[in-house]
Amino acid sequence: MPGGASNPIYPTGMTGQNLSLAIICGRNGRYWRSARVLGERCILPGMNQMRGTSVSLWDDRRRSVSGIRIEWGPMATSVSKETIERRGSEKPNRVVSILLVDDDPGAIQLMGRILADVGKLLFATNGKDALRLARDSTPDLILLDAEMPGMSGFELLKMLKAESSLADVPVIFITSHIEAGFEVSALDMGAADFIAKPLRSSRVLARVRTQLRVKHLADELRRTATTDALTGVANRRQFDESLEREWLRAKRSGDPVSLLMIDVDHFKLYNDLYGHPKGDVCLRHVTQALLSTCKRPADLVARYGGEEFMILLPQTPRHGAQRMAQQVLDAVATFGIFHEDSQTTHYVSVSVGIGCFDDASACRTYGSHALLGASDLVRAADKALYSAKHAGRGQAKLRDIGDADTSEPATGAAP
Ligand code: GH3
Ligand code: MG
Ligand code: MG
Ligand code: MG
Asked: How far is the CA of 292 from the centre of ligand 4 (A)?
C-alpha cells in the first residue's frame, strides 16, 4: 500500500469522469464509492485516511482504469468500516438540563450549588417564566417549589402535564409541607417524586440522579419503539402515526402533502451476490442518501419495511415532490454502490413512486377529498412505484391521491 500521508489519489487524463473506487479493508471488507475527477484530482466524497487499506479505480463499465497513478493519502472527511456500520445509530452525547423553580432566590442558589456538576441548570422564580423556559428548552427534569405566589407549583404541574411535549418531563416537588396528604396529592397529579425542605445535598442529589436515570431509560424505550434498528430512521409505526397526523392537518388546512415511496432495485440479486451483511450495509448507505436530500425539519424519512423507504413531505406540492424524487435518484447514484448483477445499471439504484395531494388534485376542486384517508396517499405512491418499476426502474413516477384506484396512467416525474 503506498503510504505517503500527503499523497492524494491522482488519476491522470481522466478529467470529468465518474469512477468507482473500491476500498479493500483487510480480508473482510470492500466498499464502493463513486469518485469524480476534477482537474487532476480525484474527489472522493466522505473519504479520509484509511490505514491498512488498498484502493483501485474502475470506470463506468467496470474496467480497471489503466494509465492512472493511484496514491494514497488523507482526503476531505473520514469514513471507516466502523463509521459505515455505526451510521444511522449514532447519537451524540447530550448534556442533561434541569429547570429549578422556586420563588425564594436563596433556595435556587442552594439547589444550583448542589446540582452544579449534574448538568446544565436553568432557573425561574415564578410559574409563568418557568412555563416559558420549559417550552423553549424541554428540560430533562424540573425541580418545582410547591408554594409560590401567583401560579402555584400545583397549577404549574397541571399545565406541564397538559402539554404533550412536556408531559413526559419528570417533576420533583420541593416543599416544607411534610403531611402525607400533601405528598399523595402531588404524586396523584403526576409528580415523579417529592423532597421536603430543608434541602440536604445528598438527598437532593440521590433523588435527582434516580429521576434522570429513569428518564433516560424511558427516552431510550420511546426511541427504540419508533426507530428502525438497522438504519436509525423512523420505523413503520412512527411513519404511520406521522402520516395520519399530516394527512388530517392537510385535509383541515388545505395545505399540500406528498409522499415518496422508494424501493431498492434488484435488491434480492444484491443479497444473492454479496451476502446479507453487505446488503444491510447497502441499506444504510441508501438511508444516508435519502437523509441527505431532506432539507426541511418536517420532512420524515422512514423505513417502511425490507428495502422499501418512505419520505413524507408535508406542505409540499407535486412539483416540489418531483424535484425531491430526482434528488433521491441522484443521491443514491452518487453513492456509487457497485451492483454487478443489477439489470438496470451496474450500481445500486432505486425506483420512486410519488403520491400527492395539492391544488391540482381534482378531489380538492370537488370536495371529495373529505372522503379520502392517509392510506389513499400510500396507495397512490405504491401504484406510481409499480409504474416506475414497470417502466425500467431507476426512475420516478407520480400519481394523484384521487387516482389511487383509477386506471389513469402514472405521470413521469420530471419537474
Ligand atoms: P425490484 O427491483 O422489483 O424491487 O426487485 P427486488 O429484488 O429489489 O425485490 P424483491 O421484493 O424480489 O426482493 C427484495 C429483497 O430485499 C429480498 C430480501 O431478502 C431483501 N431484504 C429485505 N429486507 C432486508 C434487510 O433488512 N437486509 C437485507 N440485507 N436484505 C433485505
Ligand atoms: Mg416558595
Ligand atoms: Mg420491495
Ligand atoms: Mg426492490
From this structure: 21
Domain with CATH 3.30.70.270 in the chain: 236-412
Beta bridge partners of 171: 142
Q: Look at the block and give the residue holding cell 423553549.
A: 136
Q: What's the rounded Cα separation, in Å, for the pair 12 and 68? A: 5
C-alpha cell at 120: 446544565
User: Which of 267, 272, 387 to mutate for ligand 1's pocket (most ligand atoms within 8 Å of CB)?
Assistant: 267
CATH topology of domain 2-225: Rossmann fold (3.40.50)
CB contact at 8 A, 347 and 337: yes
Question: Which amino acid appears at position 199 of this protein?
Answer: L
What three-state secondary structure class fits 186?
helix
Q: Does the global pTM surpass 0.70? A: no
Cite the residue boundaries of each domain of the chain with CATH code 3.40.50.2300.
2-225
Q: Note if the bond before 198 is cis, omega within 30 degrees.
A: yes
Domain 236-412 CATH superfamily: Reverse transcriptase/Diguanylate cyclase domain (3.30.70.270)
Please tell me the total number of residues recorded for the chain in this structure.
Answer: 415
CA distances to 19, 85, 277, 344 from 230, in Å: 29, 9, 11, 26
Rounded Cα distance, 287 and 382, in Å: 19
Q: And the C-alpha cell for 289?
A: 442518501
Q: What cell was used for 356?
A: 400527492
Q: Is 265 in the pocket of ligand 1 (CB under 6 A)?
A: yes
Per-residue pLDDT of the chain (415 residues; tens, 9 = 90+): 333 333 344 444 555 555 555 444 433 444 445 554 444 445 444 444 344 444 555 554 555 554 443 433 333 222 333 333 333 334 446 789 999 999 999 999 999 999 999 999 999 999 999 999 999 999 999 999 998 999 999 999 999 999 989 999 999 999 887 777 888 888 898 999 989 889 999 999 999 999 999 999 999 999 899 999 999 999 999 999 999 999 999 998 989 999 999 999 999 999 999 999 999 999 999 999 999 999 888 999 999 999 999 999 999 999 999 999 999 999 999 988 999 999 888 899 999 999 999 998 988 877 777 778 999 999 999 999 999 999 999 999 999 998 877 777 777 765 5
Indicate if ligand 1 lies below 6 Å from the C-beta of 303: no
